[in-house]
Amino acid sequence: MEQYEKAGFKKITGDELGTLTFNPFDKIGKQWALITAGDEKNWNTMTVSWGFAGVMWGKNTFTTVIRPQRYTKEFLDASEYFTVSFFKEDYRKALSFCGSNSGRDCDKASETGLTPLVIEDKSSAYGMEYAYRTTALEQADMVLVCRKAYVQEMKPECFNGGGNEAKWYPDKDYHIQYIGEIAAAYIR
Fold first, then answer.
1. Which of 145, 186, 150 is nearest to 37 (CA)?
2. In a 3-state reduction of DSSP, which class is residue 67?
3. CA-CA distance, 147 to 183, in Å (whole number)?
4. What percent of the chain has pLDDT over 90?
5. 71 burial type by CB count under 10 A (0-12 exposed, 13-18 middle, 19+ buried)
6. Rounded to whole angstroms, what are the CA distances from 40 to 54, 60, 81, 97?
7. Are 83 and 35 in contact (CB under 8 A)?
8. Closest CA to 136 of 184, 170, 174, 64
9. pLDDT (tens digit, 9 = 90+) per residue, 66-88?
10. What is the structure's pLDDT at 33?
């Protein structure tokens, strides 16, 4: 039995991904999520409430944005895969902690009670084979395993008015965008 099965997850891949009930405005903007990258010995997670889910290059994708100073960015940059973990409201306090404290300064697992779960598996989607070993969080209700497909820094010259640059980037610490192909989802 796989680790994810022991933790109570069912795997969904390929065309089944289209059967997921997923309101991105609710899941990302209101419920939040944890982005995690790394392995069982060296990983980090952080809360995200900005992101996108949709179709890009004919594949189901999840896009997140991370500021350059965030510790999790180092793990995303060093990893081919990352996970996006969604939780019930009961975990709001843990997600709040993970979004306001750095893994450089504390052990987020021991501080929040969240348990890292290594997902090592293979899947097929979009005519491709994916083989991954990455870290998620055991208490999640849904985990997306994403293969990093595209990384780009937001550029100040690309803002088109509207005040977003002045409001969100007074320190010029522009987000880095990570587009991940969803290789599989794990749900309870």
1. 145
2. coil
3. 7
4. 79
5. middle
6. 29, 26, 13, 21
7. yes
8. 184
9. 999 999 999 999 999 999 999 99
10. 94
